[in-house]
Amino acid sequence: MKKLILLAALVSSSVFANNQVINQPVNAQQGGFSGPTHGINSVKAVLDAGMFSDDTPVMLTGYLVASLGGEIYTFKDNTGTIHVEIDHDKWFGLQATPTTKITIHGDIDKELNYTKIDVDRVSLAQ
């Protein structure tokens, strides 16, 4: 039993150690860090990420160039295009057109036959 608990602790700690944090949203009332970030920040990097990149945090800046119906959109930056899923409650009142430069924060959703971004937050690009 002790070996099983030790193994579980080792596995979970290595999984948490490999998680990347990308520019967490800063609440103006709470304060927080605003500065350079590391991690996946381009469509090309998302598409080139390996098969184990599912749920990896991303922050992409670019444009929504088309609505594909429902909550699925085509997102474009200067490296490529990818489908993104933005739930209705993630817009926070923001209105965007194909010429509105935005930043999306989310996670890679990698399946066998497609890769998309599940968006957690949309904001105007700065």
Question: Could you give a quick summary of the protein structure above?
Answer:
The protein is α+β, with helices and mostly antiparallel strands and 126 residues long. It is built from 2 helices and 5 strands; from the N terminus they run ααβββββ. The longest helix has 17 residues, at 2-18.
- CA radius of gyration is 17 Å
Q: Which secondary-structure class do the elements indicate? A: alpha+beta
Number of DSSP strand runs: 5
- Name the beta content range: 35-45%
Summed over residues and divided by their number, the pLDDT gives a mean of 79
Helix percentage range: 10-25%
Major sheet: 5 strands, mixed, barrel
Low-pLDDT parts are 1-27
- Tell me, what's the shape? globular
Strand order within the widest beta sheet: 1-2-3-5-4
Q: How far apart are the termini?
A: 53 Å
Q: How do the SSEs run, as a string of H and E?
A: HHEEEEE
Tally of alpha and pi helices: 2
Describe this structure in words.
With 126 residues, the protein is of the alpha+beta class. Helices cover 18% and strands 36% of the residues. It has helices at residues 2-18, 43-48; strands at 57-69, 72-77, 80-86, 102-110, 115-124. It has a five-stranded mixed beta barrel with strand order 1-2-3-5-4. A hairpin with a 2-residue loop joins β1 (57-69) and β2 (72-77). The protein is globular and about 35 Å long. The model is unreliable at 1-27 (pLDDT under 50).
